[in-house]
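Lecture 7 notes: from sequence to structure.
We start with the chain below.
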Amino acid sequence: MWGICSRTMVKVGMAKPCGLVKPCHLVKPVSVTRVSGRYLTHQKGLPALPIPPLQQTCERYISALEPIVEVDELKNTKELLDEFQKAGGVGERLQRGLEKRASGTDNWLSQWWVQVAYLTYRLPVVVHSSPGLVLPRMNFRDKQGQIRFAAKLIAGVLDFKTMIDNETLPVEYLGGKPLCMNQYYELLSSCRIPGLKQDSVVNHAKSPRPPKHITVVHNFQFFVLDVYNSDGTPLTSNQLCVQLERICSSSLQTNMEPIGILTTQHRDQWGKAYLNLIKDKTNKRSVSAIQRSIFTLCLDGAMPRGSEEMRRSTAAVQMLHGGGSQWNSGNRWFDKTLQFIVGEEGMCGAIYEHAPAEGPPIVALIDHVVDYTGKPETTRCPMVPLPMPQKLPFNMTPEIKKDIEEAKHDMNILAEDLDMRVTVFGHFGKNVPKSHKMSPDAFIQIALQLAYYRMHQRCCATYESASLRMFRLGRTDTIRSASNASAAFVKAFDDLNKQNTEKVDLMGKAVAAHRSYTNMAISGQAIDRHLLGLKLQAVEENVSMPKVFTDPAYAKALHYCLSTSQVPSKADCVMCFGPVVSNGYGVCYNPMENHINFAVSSFNACEETNAARMAQAVESALLDMRTLLEQTPRAKL
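Predicted structure tokens for the same chain:
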């Protein structure tokens, strides 16, 4: 199960977006929840993230560059790498520094990673960082159905939270090896806090008085809803229904200032607006209540009606950014780690702030909630009066209203720029690649390479997220799907002079190369986090930045025109996210047994990219690859 983290990969390693103007040890540390007992015992038993050999990484870096840079660029990079790794040189010095760092920490990368990939990154979290998740459309179409489903959803999350609180979550495994479970303990009662040059993350789950409330947003108005009875038991779905009805009936007014839209801003702008907002004591208390809450529930108004064909794409937009200020973008607090969204017409899903966790823990929680919502209510309601949910007041000054208007304007531009297509590839799923003894993920990734090559007549740097959760506090590394083997395959596929048997042979090699890189990445032997670590170590030691990191080829290697992630789930859902570069695509997919859910995004401002055309190209590539396999003797496989 690969973790999704692709929104930020382009940002790290480049001088400007990286934002590293001072040594990283001066940056505020992100909180890491420490839990005693069973969890801690499990965590201590996990291995530490390794540091690959320097020569190995340099050799693999050259191989990764070969399909995406010109010959003269590659020659220059090889010379820079020879200089970098020579005996007694700066590369060896930085490698030793990294090894020393690793010997004194649980994970040499994790704190750096959260800072560089997220907290010092200043573009809005909306579209650029936070992934959305679309659930299958629910079978309600009115306010009452929306409330009933939302109540069941809350109860399902609280049921999952009980497992977190009691440390009874089943340990996950990959290839027979146990995975780090830390991210589950970062999902609830946490929030990102804006800063002027960098943000921070707070987690209240293990504070002396952990939160007992969630935040509910309806018609841009925020409410505190206590979700536990006085005896500590969680409210039942029926009790939650009563409370949500109270919230909706007391927030019918729709012309309220959408305070939540401030969280869509560029992080520096939001940092300034935030300081201005919380100067008022009432506002500060209200903001603190949102930040401390277990999670946020967004009860959305109806979205614009579109064709049935575009329904899933509209739902993805609703989850990802809310549709703009005239729709639901203000009905959010995007800094909150976890927000569940329940639309009035049955569109449901979630969005999460990416700093504390990757996709798989989110999906595991969602799978549990979807399963829970399908079960009948079994708990009887205690016959006790419930306290009225408290509306969070905000005092609006002219300056705050001005900030809100600016945020509306910028959000609308971003919403109009994002092109999102969610499609269901219904011809086959994991079954076909498996029948040909091929990894389904590798098969899909090679199809993405073929689709991109057909559209743009070139290979590009491609990011696929690989989980490092085999290691303590592990996050992700990069599977570089564009390889020499994939390049040879995509260039040969439509060549009429090539025989089908040769094409099948090249396909098999491309799939095998991807599978090999995947295994390398999940075992901590990929190149990208190691190169980043060497770069950050140079900053830490205050040495002149090695030329290998200012080389144009390094920038090209990090310019991910294809930013992709496989996020499998039991529920028939799909994650979605924006591209990480202006002329790129974001592609997330959930392969089911007999179909594949795809979410493809691009920016309208870029004339060379088009999400609908890319989605169609992916479908054609998958079908053509199956046809090639079926029409060609299997001797070469």
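Points to note: The longest helix spans residues 143-165. The chain has two domains: 6-118+426-636, 130-169+179-419.
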